[in-house]
Structure formats: structure tokens, C-alpha cells
């Protein structure tokens, strides 16, 4: 039998204790796929780590927007919402904060006078270029609990699930 680290044992004990308690409707969220996806995401997210916030001066929502702009700029705010899955208000707040700090700029859209394109400023590019290698390093450390094959399987399944969830959420709601 393999031995567990004290952190693994404590985490397992906490999950077991939580799953032994029932809610009035008897829903055991500790066996919910989406509970675990959110939990892992919240713990592993680069911008959620207080040391990263101190080191780079950026929070999780700002990092998600900055990362999208760093990869795909120029884009519209609607594009950022679509790529990140964040709601419009969260993206709007992040953009205001990033603009105030001169990391993002709004540009005229060549095809739509009402729309604006978003792009990183030189300071935004510099910050993104500092963050990306560290974010990749931390992702590698966090994912090291899975084999390379498991990581590839998980990524494939998450992409499949993401595609399905988008389709479900785009469909009309049946009452």
C-alpha cells in the first residue's frame, strides 16, 4: 500500500468528512464533476495565488484578460468573454483596471464604428512576457501529479466537455 503525504491525507480526510455530511436535499457536491473542476481551477489559477498577485500586481480576472490579449490581440471585449467564459461585467472591470494602469488600450474597429478593439500597450506586452514563463512553470508543477498521458487525456476531455457545455448553454432553455 502506498503511503500518503500528510497534505494528501488531510485533503482526503476533509473531503471524506464533507461527503459524510448531507445537505437537506441530500446533494453530495464532493462527487460533482463541476465542483472539482472549479475547485482545482480556483486553487491552481495563476492569478489566484497571493504571491503571484504581489509579484506581478495582477489578479486572476486581470490575468485571464491579459493572457487572451497576449495570445490573440487585437480582439473585442465580446471575444474576451467568449474565450475566457467570464461574464461581461467581470471582463469590463478587468479591462477598466488594466486600462487605468496603461496595460491595455482600446482602438477603433476598422469594420464597426461602434465597436472597439483591445490590445496590449508596450507595458502590457512586457508584463505578459514576464508572466507567461512563470505561469507555464507553475502549471507544469501543478500538473505533475498526473502522467504525461493523463495530462493529454484530461486536456482532450476538458476540450470536449467545453465544446459540449457551450452548445448546451447556447441552446434555448426548456422549462
Give an account of the 3D structure:
The chain has 175 residues and is mostly helical. It has one domain (29-168): Winged helix-like DNA-binding domain superfamily/Winged helix DNA-binding domain (Arc Repressor Mutant, subunit A, Orthogonal Bundle). It is built from 8 helices and 2 strands, in the order H-H-H-H-H-H-E-E-H-H. It is globular, with a radius of gyration of 20 Å.
Relevant CATH superfamily: Winged helix-like DNA-binding domain superfamily/Winged helix DNA-binding domain
What overall geometry do the principal axes of the alpha carbons give? globular
The helix/strand order is HHHHHHEEHH
How many domain regions? 1
Rg estimate, integer Å: 20 Å
Topology, element by element:
Elements: H1 6-20, H2 33-44, H3 50-56, H4 60-72, H5 77-84, H6 88-100, E1 104-108, E2 116-120, H7 122-143, H8 148-170
Antiparallel strand pairs: 1-2
Task: Summarize it.
The chain contains eight helices and two strands, in the order H-H-H-H-H-H-E-E-H-H. By secondary structure, the chain is mainly α.
For the structure shown, list the relevant keywords:
about 180 residues; mainly alpha; Arc Repressor Mutant, subunit A; two-stranded antiparallel ribbon; 2 strands
Amino acid at each position: 500500500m502506498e503511503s500518503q503525504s500528510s497534505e494528501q491525507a488531510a485533503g482526503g480526510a476533509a473531503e471524506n468528512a464533507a461527503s459524510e455530511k448531507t445537505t437537506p436535499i441530500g446533494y453530495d457536491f464532493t462527487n460533482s464533476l463541476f465542483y472539482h473542476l472549479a475547485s482545482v481551477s480556483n486553487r491552481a489559477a495563476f492569478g489566484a495565488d497571493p504571491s503571484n498577485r504581489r509579484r506581478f500586481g495582477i489578479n486572476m480576472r486581470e490575468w485571464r484578460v491579459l493572457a487572451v490579449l497576449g495570445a490573440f490581440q487585437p480582439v473585442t471585449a465580446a471575444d474576451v468573454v467568449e474565450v475566457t467564459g467570464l461574464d461581461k461585467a467581470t471582463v469590463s472591470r478587468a479591462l477598466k483596471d488594466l486600462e487605468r494602469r496603461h496595460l491595455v488600450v482600446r482602438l477603433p474597429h476598422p469594420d464597426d464604428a461602434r465597436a472597439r478593439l483591445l490590445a496590449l500597450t508596450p507595458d502590457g506586452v512586457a508584463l505578459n512576457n514576464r508572466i507567461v514563463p512563470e505561469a507555464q512553470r507553475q502549471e507544469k508543477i501543478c500538473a505533475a501529479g498526473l502522467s504525461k498521458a493523463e495530462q493529454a487525456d484530461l486536456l482532450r476531455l476538458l476540450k470536449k466537455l467545453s465544446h459540449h457545455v457551450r452548445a448546451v448553454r447556447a441552446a434555448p432553455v426548456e422549462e
